[in-house]
Amino acid sequence: MAKEGLGLGLGLGLELSLSPPGGKTEKNERKRTFLEIAGEGNGSTGEHKSEKKNQVVGWPPVCSYRRKNSFNGREMMKMYVKVSMDGAPFLRKIDLGTHKGYDDLAMALEKLFSCYGIREALRDEDSSEFVPIYEDKDGDWMLVGDVPWEMFTESCKRLRIMKRSEAKTIEVLQARNFLKGASKDV
Amino acid sequence: MREDRPPPTPSRGGAYSPPPPDQVLENVLEHVLQFLTFRRDRNAAALVCRSWHRAEALTRLELFIGNCYAVAPRRAMERFRRATAVTIKGKPRFADFNLMPPDWGANFTPWVTFMAQCYRALEKLCLKRMFVTDEDLELLASFPSFRELVLICCDGFGTSGLAVVASKCRKLRVLDLIEDEVTDDEIDWISCFPEGETCLESLIFDCVECPIYFEALERLVARSPSLKKLKLNRYVSIVQLYRLMIRAPQLTHLGTGSFSPSEIVAQGDQEPDYSSAFDACRSLVCLSGFREIVPDYLPAIYPVCANLTSLNFSYANISAEQLRSVIRYCHKLQIFWVLDTVCDAGLQAVAATCKDLRELRVFPIDAREDSEAPVSDVGLLAISEGCRKLQSILYFCQRMTNAAVIAMSENCPELVVFRLCIMGRHLPDHVTREPMDEGFGAIVKNCKKLTRLATSGLLTDRAFSYIGQYGKLVRTLSVAFAGDSDTGLKYVLEGCPRLQKLEIRDSPFGDSALRTGLHRYYNMRFLWMSSCRLTRRGCKEIAQQMPHLVVEMINGEEEEVKDDYVDTLYMYRSLDGPRADAPSFVTIL
Question: Residue limits of the Transport inhibitor response domain (chain B) (predicted)?
Fold first, then answer.
C-alpha cells in the first residue's frame, strides 16, 4: 500500500483504505446512506454492508452535548471505584471503564501510587510485594486477576493493594479457595 | 388595577405623536390586553384591526422569536417597543446531531446590537441554539435592569463572558446554562460575583466543562439567601456537594455534580453523613446530576425521594437493582430521565411506583446503531400499563414491537409527545418482522392530543398515510430512514393542518412531494430535508413560487453537488427576505 502521495507529489500522506479518509468521512457516509436507499437498501453489496456498520452521522439522534458527556461503546463506560494502598496516605478513584484489561489497570495503578510491582503481582502472585484484592458485589474480598476482565469490572466495588507483609493470609487464602471452587463457609 | 392615565403630554425626549381619536378606547384596550399572556391569544388579538394591533404591540411584554431569521431584529423590536423579556431560537434541531456544518449562522450579535439601542430596559433573555459571543454577553451585562439569562444549546462564548455577566449584572437572579458549549478561558468566573448578598435565585452550570474554584462557590452560595435552584458541574465532588447543601437547605432544584469522591481522598477520612444533608433539604423537588456516580452513595438521596417530582439519572450508569432501591420511594415523580442501563426490569420498577409519571426519557448508554440496547418493548409495555397519565415519552431501544406501541396508544390517551427511536436503521417489529406502521398508526389514531411525533424503524408509506389521516394536531414531526416514495411525504403535507416543524433525513422523498406542500410552507416555522431525493431544480421552483420563503441549500463541503441532488434543504418563511450572513456553503435560492 503506497503511503506516499501516489507519486503525484501531493505530499498529502494519502493512504489507500476502504473507508473514506478522515475529513471526508461524514459527507461520504451520508452519501452512501442515500445510495443505499436509492438502491432500496436491502440489496446491499458486501461493501455497502461494511459501510452500514460504520456510523452514520447524527444517528442515533443523541445530541452532541450528551454524546460527549455520555458513553459511546462499552469501552468508555464510567465505573468509578475507590482504590487504597497500604501505606499510602491517600485514597484514589479510578474509572475501570477506561481500562482494557488487567495489565492496563496494573500500569495505571503503578502510576497512581508511584510504585512498582503491581503488574508482577497480577502475573505471579508469590514473588511480588503486593497483593491486589477487590471487594465484590457480595462484599467478599477476592484476588484480582482470576476472573475474566468483564466479570471483574461488573462486580468490583472497590480495590485495595495490600502489602504481602500485612496481608491477613487467612482472608486471602479464603478468597483463593473460593475461586478454586472450594465450598465457602456461611 | 385601575390607574387614571394622565392626559397625553409631549414625552421627555421621545417622539411625540398626536393622540388617536378615541384615546379612551385605546386605554381600555391596553389595560385589558395586559391580561393576555399566551402568544397565540395575542397574535389573534393583533389581527382584529389597526388599533388592536397597536394596543397589543404596546402591551406585549414577552417577545418570542421562533426562528431568528424569520424577522429582522429592527422590525420585531420596533413593533414591540415595550417588551422586557425576549426568547429567540436559532438553529434547527438537527444541528444538535452534527447535521449542520459549524458557522452556519444564528448569530446573536445583530440582535443584541439592536437591543442596546431599543431595549435598554431588557430584563430577561432566553436563547436556544444561538451563537453567542463573549462580546455579546458583555453588551448584555450593561443593561441596567437585566436579571435573567437562560442559554440553551448555545455556543460561541466562554468563561470570560460568564465572568463579565457575573460581575456587571447587579440584579442578576437567574443564570441558567443548559447544554451549552462553553470554552474554558481559564477565568474563575464564580469569583466574579460581587461581594455582599446576591439576589441569585437560580444558578445552573452543569454543562460548563471547566473546573471551578470551590471556596468561591461556597461563599457565593452562603451569601445567596434566595437561591432555589443550583445545578453543579462534574468538577464538584460529593464532599463539596455536602458543604454546599448544608449552606442551602432551602434549595428546590439540585444538580449534584459528580456525586463521587474527588480523585484523591485522605485515607481514614471520615466521610460526612450525606443523607443528613439531603434530609435537611425539605423543599427539594427536582434532582439531577450524578455525572460520575459511584453507586455506593445512592442511599444518601433516600430522604428526599418521597417529595421528588423530577429526577434525572440520564448521566448515571446504574443497574436495575440500584434504580429499584431509589425509585420505590418516588411516588410523586412526574418527570424521569434515565439511562437504558437500568434495563426493562428497572422500567418495570418505575411503572410499579410512579403512578403520576408525566414525562419519561430513556437514553442509550451506547448510542450506536448496532449496540445492544438493554431496554425493549417489554419496558415500554410495562410503562404504558403502570403510568397511565403519561404525556411525553422519548425512548431509545433496539427491539420494539407494534403490539407494545399499540398498547401504549391505548393505555396512555394523554400522550402529547411520542418519540420512539429504534436505533438500528430500518428495523422491523422484532417478533412479527413487519414494518412499524401499525404501531405509529395507533399512536396518531388513539392519542387525540398528540402534537409531537418522532418515528423510527422500518416504515412504509402506509405509516405516513396514518399520520396524514389522524395526526390532525401534529405540530412537530421528525422522520428518519423511512418511507418508500414521494407518496409518503404527500400524505403528511396534505393531511396535517397544524404542521409547524417538519424535519426529515435520509428518506426517499423528492421534488414532486415537496411541491404538494406549497400551501403549507408559509404557515410553518421550517422544513428540513437532508439526504433525501431533492434536486436543485426542484428547490428552485419552490423558491420562485414562494417569494417570502427563504430556501437554503446547505452543502456539507464546499464542492459542487454531484448529480444535482441537494444535500440539505432548510426552508422557512421570512418577513425580511434572505439573510445577509449566509456562509459560503449555503446557497439561498
Answer: 83-127
